[in-house]
Amino acid sequence: MEFVLNGRRVQVEKLAPQTTLLDYLRASGLTGSKEGCAEGECGACTVVLVREGPAGTEYRGVNSCLLFLPMLAGQEVYTVEGLAQDGKLAEVQAAMVQHGGSQCGYCTPGFVMSLFAEQYRPDRGPEFDLHALSGNLCRCTGYRPIKDAALSLGPAPEDSFKARLREPAPVLGPAVYESEQGRFVRPGSLEECLTFLALHPEAKLVAGGTDAVVESNLQYRRWELLVGLEAIPELKVFEEHEDMLEIGAGLSLGELERRWKGAPQIVREWFPLFASPLIRNSATLGGNLGTASPIGDSPPMLLALDAAVRIAGKEGERVVPLAEFFKGYRQTALGKGEVIVSVLVPKPFPAHSRFFKVAKRRLDDISTVAAGFALELGGAGRVARVRLAYGGVAATPVRLFAVEEALTGQPWSEASLRRAQGMIAEAIKPISDHRGSAEYRLRMAQKLLEKFYYETASAEGVKG
Length: 464
What we know:
The chain is α+β, with helices and mostly antiparallel strands. It has helices at 21-27, 91-98, 108-119, 143-151, 160-164, 190-199, 212-219, 253-259, 265-273, 277-280, 285-290, 298-304, 401-407, 414-427, 438-460, and strands spanning 2-5, 8-11, 46-53, 56-63, 76-78, 175-179, 182-186, 204-206, 225-228, 238-240, 244-248, 308-313, 316-321, 326-328, 331-332, 339-346, 352-358, 369-377, 383-391, 398-399. The chain has three domains: 2-164, Ubiquitin-like (UB roll), CATH 3.10.20; 175-234, Uridine Diphospho-n-acetylenolpyruvylglucosamine Reductase, domain 2 (2-Layer Sandwich); 360-464, CO dehydrogenase flavoprotein, C-terminal domain (Enolase-like, domain 1), CATH 3.30.390.50. The chain contains 15 helices and 20 strands. A hairpin with a 3-residue loop joins β10 and β11. The radius of gyration is 23 Å and the shape is globular. The termini are far apart.
């Protein structure tokens, strides 16, 4: 297996397929990338990939701790060691030195790589977007000088890195990697993938790696056969139709955010609250739905939009409403050898829609409770259509059908809100864990609906 590392082609053999890019880099002497969490929360391991983006070739920051090494086959990677040229620091490195942006230094290389990706972003505006750094944590809390360094950066200089962006990015194709510890296969088409899965239904599917690699890193899960989905073009579609939007299950959330220009409010609110830019550059909707985590952030949002999933297997395709997709804790309607091809979002989008997330940190954190709400009002301020969806309150993401039915046709009023809140207490039975008690989760579920009511009632001029 080969890939380009800091401008030089390297070959990998004999290593376990579940070796991470981070472990490989450090074993190769490139120790600027650090392991702080092994689950993509701290950003100390940040590197950049050369990828094709909506505005052309770009440097895309990712967590190297969340990439199995064979996923890099045919790709191009840069680490902090590759930025300085002819003994001269890159502008982002020099800015960190000038503004005192490094204290203990552990997080510094990760920040530098995120700074680098943002400075060279092809569609960047005149000012540095500080949100590009939201996936990097400084345990010394030395954020002010890092911010100063970021804001001091002008446009990307005319150097070899800028010149690289004028050339095409590597095109991912089929790949196979084998060692004594296991096998990695990357099909190049949906048909090829389904044929392979029909023969090997036990294979572990990997899209962005932001869930599977965490399992490998922290729970020491091992699979004899990994199937990478990142080179299948049928999973990368983004197509607007008159009656729906189709989103490829393998499209990264970062790409989706930049393509979906007319996204409804619920989606615009959801994007920045889903992990961090580094995670969104790898994570996919298909992966987030397929893992069926009860605290995943995308299910409540998509349930509120009445989304469905297109599923393919060797026997053909079928469409399953998302409300029928989750069958139990970490269980879905996917059969053996099936994959999620795309997510279908019907049009028109609802007039009012909101996404709320309760977590210990505002950004880059796991939900305690997440909620997606959608509302259409008819004549006399009565509810024509409402969708109430939650994560973190049951073994699966849920839609509260009984509460929706009770609200439909009723005035959108405080009295209706109170009745709905009472029904929520009967409809959900959350559990207590280290993120929040059952009582807290229930109160948050009720209060988030209350927040949605007051915001929409104010917008519609509803009284009482």
